[in-house]
Design goal:
260 residues; alpha/beta; Metallo-beta-lactamase, Chain A; 2 domains; 13 strands
Length: 260
């Protein structure tokens, strides 16, 4: 969730997204647009909840613009089709609901540096590399002279370096390759094929000259003891071997201020 002067933009909508939004005090009706990095289930499982809850709690209701890679239009159409019984019941029950939710979709073109929003807040999309998941995109949000990059799931790639160049904050999903490599189950080790390791993210941050590196969507989940095995301090130390700037590993609901 990115906020700019009272405007709210949501990036991906995975498990528990609506519950976390409720805890921030930002309701679905306040979301200006939803941006999807890719269509893997753990990044989109709550899209149906965002759509439905925004629709029934908006007074008056308003469309929810969704931006995402090719395939997003079909995904949204399939989601609305799945919701048809629920939508029908609610329209039948509430006199002031006469139509279902409006969800206009814009699919990114796959061109590096594509501007997908430019109205005081500038949002740029660039293809990334999460193959075999394809296409995937990262986003850069620019406003008031500040910039934040939300990379999503990807290995290092040239497009990501360009998007991150000089950013104030770079948010990267990361995995502990040293831990996962020793798991005996091949299917679990496969996640190393298409995610950035902690070191990968730190090297990207250094190459791009970013100010702050934020590690998120961490696999495996850091342990409860910051100084214990797989504790957050291990994660931070691994990143610090390759990046001299500020490194954060926030908890859910933590807020990071940019430019203040």
């Amino acid at each position: 969730l990115v906020g700019v002067d009272g405007r709210w933009f949501l990036f991906d909508a995975g498990r528990g997204c609506l519950m976390r939004l409720a805890a921030t005090g930002v309701g679905p009706a306040q979301i200006e647009s939803l941006f999807l990095t890719h269509l893997h289930s753990d990044h989109v499982t709550d899209v149906n909840d965002v759509i439905t809850t925004r629709w029934i709690t908006g007074f008056p209701g308003s469309p929810l613009p969704v931006v995402g890679p090719a395939g997003t239009q079909r995904f949204v159409e399939d989601t609305l089709r799945m919701l048809e019984p629920d939508i029908g019941w609610r329209v039948a029950h509430h006199d002031d609901l006469v139509t279902g939710p409006e969800v206009p979709v814009t699919e990114t073109t796959g061109v590096e540096g594509e501007v997908v929003l430019d109205d005081g807040v500038r949002i740029i999309a660039t293809p990334t590399d999460h193959r075999p998941v394809h296409p995937t995109v990262a986003y850069r949000v620019e406003a008031d002279g500040c910039s934040v990059v939300l990379a999503g799931d990807t290995v290092p790639c040239g497009g990501l370096d360009l998007l991150c160049a000089g950013a104030d904050v770079y948010v990267q999903t990361v995995v502990r390759d040293d831990v996962i490599r020793n798991i005996p189950l091949r299917r679990l080790r496969d996640v190393l094929d298409y995610h950035s390791s902690v070191a990968d993210a730190a090297r990207t941050a250094t190459r791009a000259g970013v100010g702050t590196l934020v590690l998120n969507h961490c696999v495996p989940t850091p342990g409860p003891d910051p100084d214990g095995p797989n504790g957050r301090n291990e994660w931070l130390a691994m990143a610090a071997e390759h990046f001299d700037g500020e490194i954060l590993l926030p908890d859910d609901l933590d807020r990071i201020s940019v430019g203040t």
